[in-house]
Amino acid sequence: MSNLDRRPPARDLGGLAGTPARPVLDLLPGKEVLLGESTHVRRLLPTLGRRMVGAWVFVDHYGPDNIATAPGMQVPPHPHTGLQTVSWLLEGEVHHLDSLGSDVRIRPGELALMTAGHGIAHAEQSPATHPRFLHGAQLWVALPDTDREVAPHFEHQRTLPGFGSDGLTATVLMGSFGDVTSPGRAYTPLVGVDLDLAAGADVEIPLEPDFEYALLTSAGAARVDDVVLAPGAMLYLGTGRRVLRLRATEASRLLLLGGEPFEERLVMWWNFVGRAGEEIAAYAEQWNRESDRFGAVVGYDGDRLAAPPLPPVPLMARGRVR
């Protein structure tokens, strides 16, 4: 999925100074963003006061939207570098095309994991004939410096591992949770888990004290400690937790994201993650002149997105330092 903002700000990401070495309960403000022609999303990361959770650098939550008489998701070809995209559907269907030749229909419960690395382009669309509702999350993971130039690749995991207990069904998208490990390839210690809570569930889930975590409520309303999370809300939990209590008075879906705090300083602008402003400017120039770096998305009927103008001030990875 693309950041379609025509004036995207440069984000200074990474570093440990802003990572509390203790549990916290910070409700993160979301921002309504129009994605493509008709899809509205809630952008929850990066946001004011919180730019990363582990290596997770970008979280969009969309739906549930009734698209029975609408085109649904329509995101033209666009580029990425230095990151992984993680697509997670709760309802609907999305057609993924990329410059590697991948041509995949993504459905609920399946993991679409695209590693951009050196550079890739892709497009995402609701098929012409599509389910009535569209609901899901689009996530980005920053690649560490050792792997950010890795050859691009795409994984489509139709079946993911998980477990159920006491009104909780957990599905592991990325990383390990308890004794369960996702088949999706991760490049830093992190975790992403879909938590499906039955009405009346009251459970404790295990956490890694060295990880920082956040919880997104996809549907329903769950109580985390003494905070009730409404749909579309995201709660940052900090570090230092070994267990987390979740209670649901109604059926609820949560997305747990976590990982070791990311030490490297990054620049994120538009759909690129780099280490310096000069890199980002080069990526944008290469994309606009149709460089071989990103390839072409074959099979998409329409124009690709152009990179927007760069900001008038230099892009710098000032970030936060230890």
UniProtKB/TrEMBL annotation:
Fe cation binds at residues 78, 80, 122, 124. Binds 1 Fe cation per subunit. Keywords: Iron, Metal-binding. Its cofactor is Fe cation. Coiled coil: none annotated. Residues 193-290 form the Pirin C-terminal domain. One of its GO terms (molecular function) is metal ion binding. SUPFAM superfamilies: RmlC-like cupins (SSF51182). It comes from the Bacteria. InterPro entries: Pirin, Pirin_C_dom, Pirin_N_dom, RmlC-like_jellyroll, RmlC_Cupin_sf. The keyword Glycoprotein does not apply. Residues 40-141 form the Pirin N-terminal domain. Belongs to the pirin family. This is Pirin family protein. The lineage of its organism: Bacteria, Bacillati, Actinomycetota, Actinomycetes, Geodermatophilales.
